[in-house]
Amino acid sequence: MEDRVPARYTLEGVTGAEVSVHPFATDDGLGLNLTRFRRADCDDVVLLLHGLTASIDMFIMPEHRNLVTVLLDNGFTDVWALDFRMSSRLPYDAETHRYTLDDIAAWDHPAALRELRRHVGNRRVHVIAHCLGSVSFSMSLFGGALDGVASLVSNSVSLTPRVPTWSRCKLAAGPGLSEYLIGLSYLDSRFGAAPPLTRGWMVSRMVSLFHRECDVRDCHMISFMWGSGHPALYEHENLAPVTHQRIADLLGPTGVHYFRHIRKMVAAGQAVKYDPADPRHAALPDAYLTRAGGVATPILFLSGDANRVFPGANASCHEALERVRPGLQEFASLPGYGHIDPFIGENAHVDVFPKILDFLQRQTSRASEPMSAAPLVTPPTKEDSRASAASEPMSAAPLVTPPTKEDS
Predict the structure, then answer these.
(1) Which residues of the chain, if any, have pLDDT below 50?
(2) Are 159 and 138 within 8 A, CB to CB?
(3) pLDDT by residue (tens digit) across 245-261?
(4) In angstroms, what CA-CA distances link 107 with 51, 66, 100, 253, 394?
(5) φ and ψ at residue 396, rounded to 5 degrees
(6) What is the pLDDT of residue 401?
(7) Is 283 left (phi over 0), alpha (psi -120 to 50) or beta?
(8) Angle at CA 344, nearest 5°, toward 114 and 142?
(9) Which of 159, 201, 245, 312 has its CA 20 to 30 A from that of 295?
(10) Rounded Cα gap, residues 135 and 133, in angstroms
(11) Structural domains in the chain, sorted by start
């Protein structure tokens, strides 16, 4: 739409809406933010979740028609976007930490839903989630940490992470090498702008030796941090030139400890706890797919056919859930798209967003049918769980197992 580089953390990409910021705290003591874009009250509220290294900025970009604007223009006139602990708008990923996706599933998303419900009451809430925002929210939903979700759109990856071989190598060796050899507890897409001969500067120069696909060092670092490709997270041709130029505004630093949890999930073939012995997360299941049969939330799984971060992950999750809760999920492949360009691509409003709108509109239409007065499905109570366990001897067995090599 324009070649001017937008201001960092700008909200100018959304017009004609009342914008308000709603800070809240998690039970483990982190301050997070919900940003609301409201034109009018409506029965169906949408909550947007970014991925690791990103923020709400990926949904409100001024340089092209963004997702928040498209939702507002198509009847979803109350849109919320969450900056949780992975957000580049918050300081946590540029600090030394030991956060896991279990922390986010247990504390960030439930607290965000509570804060959102304080303002919207019992209206239907639809969630659109990307990358590890999708993984962690799916963990919350299927782990019983929250309920009352009318529908979910998951982009790229959910409960069955799969990564390329090179990514497996980085997951295995990267966190230890970064923390104990290089002395960095986080990686930053802006390392290229660090003072000469500092550790970040040298890492950036080393990475750029292997990335000749463009002259933007920030882009090289992002491909090194995630995925396997040149570039790894998107197709260059899908980005507006100004987006490519300011890619570090959209994708910032990441704490390397998260990679350890992803490594465990990839090895298990499904989302699992980082530390099953951690008493703080005793209420969550050790494997998050084991309770899938009790979750009735409709899901649209999306994935670009050029996804080089989590290739095949959402197709695999769709297949796994179809075996347990048939008909409640759909899968759509996005031709010519990668991992994050389904949201930040210049023409995503033409190629991708209509698929999201169609899914959301079908969910709202079903909700308005005569049976819509039925309450949303909620996780079983402790009493229900005890009764179920007593009547179903096999209930302790996992409901879903990761696909075998033959299934793949």
Answers:
(1) 371-408
(2) yes
(3) 999 999 999 999 999 99
(4) 16, 28, 11, 21, 30
(5) -75, -15
(6) 46
(7) alpha
(8) 35
(9) 312
(10) 6
(11) 18-163+279-396 (3.40.50.1820)
